[in-house]
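$ ./design --mode recover --in tokens.txt
reading tokens...
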């Protein structure tokens, strides 16, 4: 079984992002970049399925700037077999990414596609669902457990009321939640081996996909600073303050 897993290059989750002075977006100059945390979980799950003998090949796919090769190398160090970079300097939006991935699926014919449920830079949570719709494939989102058997995937997924278990026939799209697994750290020997693994670079036009943005960002602003707290002397004063605030609202 062949698995495709997607990875995205984002600002590292430990970085305090800054908005550009002109309000056009987030300043990424000289900022540490890394793999989207949900995608790390997706790569880990794909590699575990390969180690369990369920899968024979894991292909990591990324769409973005040339530097995304570094993110692909991280996926290869974790255990993916090869990488595909769809190189573009455009601001790729979820629908464009889904169309690019659909073109890759048509070429590679995988039995399972695993994506992080969302990226921490835009939190769109759309690409996996759009890809399933474009490919007319079943989907199981927010997965916290995945079991592959008899041509199907039994997926336990996180929902508002608790957990839901679905059985989907392969090929299928699965998006990962935080509780699915704990990603491993790539060892030095694995990092060295990853440097020799192949990464294919292609352009969106090679796949016949138009990635022109459909949405325009008008302005990006930082959230309002939180005001200082007020210490109340007793419960009665607190209640009076809350009543007063409620009347104002």
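writing sequence...
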């Amino acid at each position: 079984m062949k698995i495709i897993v997607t990875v995205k290059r984002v600002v590292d989750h430990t970085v305090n992002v800054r908005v550009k002075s002109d309000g056009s977006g987030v300043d990424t100059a000289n900022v540490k970049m890394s793999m989207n945390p949900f995608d790390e979980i997706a790569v880990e799950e794909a590699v575990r399925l390969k180690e369990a003998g369920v899968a024979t090949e894991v292909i990591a796919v990324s769409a973005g700037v040339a530097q995304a090769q570094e993110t692909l190398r991280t996926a290869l160090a974790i255990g993916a077999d090869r990488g595909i970079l769809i190189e573009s300097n455009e601001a790729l939006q979820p629908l464009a990414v889904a169309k690019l991935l659909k073109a890759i699926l048509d070429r590679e014919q995988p039995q399972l596609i695993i994506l992080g449920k969302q990226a921490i830079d835009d939190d769109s949570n759309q690409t996996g669902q759009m890809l399933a719709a474009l490919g007319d494939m079943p989907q199981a989102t927010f997965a916290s457990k995945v079991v592959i058997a008899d041509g199907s995937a039994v997926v336990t997924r996180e929902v508002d009321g608790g957990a839901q278990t679905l059985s989907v026939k392969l090929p299928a799209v699965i998006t990962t939640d935080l509780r699915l697994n704990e990603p491993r750290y790539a060892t030095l020997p694995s990092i060295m081996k990853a440097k020799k693994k192949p990464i294919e670079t292609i352009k969106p036009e090679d796949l016949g996909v138009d990635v022109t943005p459909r949405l325009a960002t008008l302005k990006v602003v930082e959230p309002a600073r939180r005001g200082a707290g007020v210490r109340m002397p007793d419960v009665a004063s607190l209640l009076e303050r809350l009543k007063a605030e409620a009347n104002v609202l």
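exit 0
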